[in-house]
């Protein structure tokens, strides 16, 4: 009969659990078909996230083809698409895929598993995307963890699955002609045609591997020292390859373990654990995209001030470090982790704007958007999540700036207006005497905004804001 491999956030042939299993388990007589399902519900307009993801799909399509694997596209509502597929291929009797354990994808996978079973299609699904799946790390009592550190301790002690290079692909993956696939290909073609990036962008398995190697060679061992300084640009930038599956997480693990022990390596490993942790947290709190995890904070009266929100989005808050971070996001589709923390704290604490608005804006812009990590990061900053920053520990944007961009190198890179501001004033350019402002042709309030809030007053306001609910 026919066997289908359903690709989704696992855009690689190497060490792909479901794909490997299919190759291993299929018989000579089985006809193997690879598909990618395009769900119009998941299309986002003008979004780097969307463009980056589908550009990766398009790159994968080409690279798979070069390895004699044809990917067929199916377009439309999930259930209707698979019903049509079953009608078209009566002898289709098995499906392989790497499952999504949380969010939209997990709901889809559960629904479709029932559908496949009802239609006598054998389901072979696997956890492939994380070092440990959502049910693997539990307290001795069987409960799930809510705090990172004990989770990390347990996670470290657990054996990890090995990296498994894909065997030689000697099966047939020829192109199949069918109106469903023709339509899918047409829709995909139209989608790809519209993809544009205002920045340089390359992707694919080989590029991902290059990033991994380069990072290990040049930055891994001082990762711990440099990771918090945006101007050093010392982090791995692997996030986008992990979210598309262009890079196998087991390949990363295997490469790290071939390296000598160092503080850098250990810290990097803990970051990979955060990825698993937030994945598990989303599974445990399926409503977290719209609802605060901590029940006592569900009644907070967030602000919806559009004007302030726009200033934040556009990098026009008058706080250089915030503006530089927001402009990095708008210009490159990526933002350094330290800045994500600072700008998220600023939106939710200084502006008291609903964290959901920030989460949604990041969803649109980030080329590494991952729902579990993004929502986790936002609820952490808003103090509403698990193991979040307590509401009374408020990031001071100026102090953060002095600490993590001391000489203003990063600020000047993204805010050219401030390039002539001396170090002394770079974190608070409004403090430059007017005479001096004029002498460098930069009038604060005209050429660069004055701060849109008075941070010194925020603390007491936030304490009142949160206390109302406790
Ligand atoms: P590195 O420092 O090189 O870290 C290596 C890998 O570890 C990352 O690629 C990532 O997979 C993982 N990792 C690191 N930090 C975290 C973290 N805090 N949580 C979960 N995983 C982590 N990460 C995303 O992948 N997608 C998102 O949409 C996302 N949104 C975020 C939103 C906010 C408000 C915050 C505070 C953090 C968010 N993060 C997100 C986490 C983190 O900022 C990024 O993973 C990191 O900046 C990616 O760059 P890198 O690959 O160079 O990271």
Task: Give a written overview of the molecule.
By secondary structure, this protein is an alpha/beta fold. Among the domains are: 145 residues, 3-Layer(aba) Sandwich (Rossmann fold); 173 residues, Orthogonal Bundle (DNA Cyclobutane Dipyrimidine Photolyase, subunit A, domain 3), CATH 1.10.579.10. The chain is built from 20 helices and 5 strands. It has a 5-stranded parallel β-sheet with strand order 3-2-1-4-5, sandwiched between helices. α1 links the parallel β1 and β2. α11 packs across α16, α13 packs across α14 and α15 runs antiparallel to α16. It starts with a strand and ends with a helix. 41% of the residues are buried. The model has no long low-confidence stretch (mean pLDDT 96). Flavin-adenine dinucleotide binds next to α9, α11, α14 and α16. The site of flavin-adenine dinucleotide has 27 residues, from α9, α11, α14 and α16.
Write the layout of secondary structure elements.
Layout: E1 2-7, H1 17-25, E2 31-38, H2 48-66, E3 71-75, H3 78-88, E4 92-98, H4 103-118, E5 122-126, H5 148-157, H6 179-193, H7 205-218, H8 223-226, H9 239-244, H10 249-257, H11 263-284, H12 306-313, H13 320-332, H14 337-350, H15 355-365, H16 371-381, H17 397-404, H18 409-414, H19 434-439, H20 455-467
Parallel strand pairs: 1-2, 1-4, 2-3, 4-5
The structure holds flavin-adenine dinucleotide.
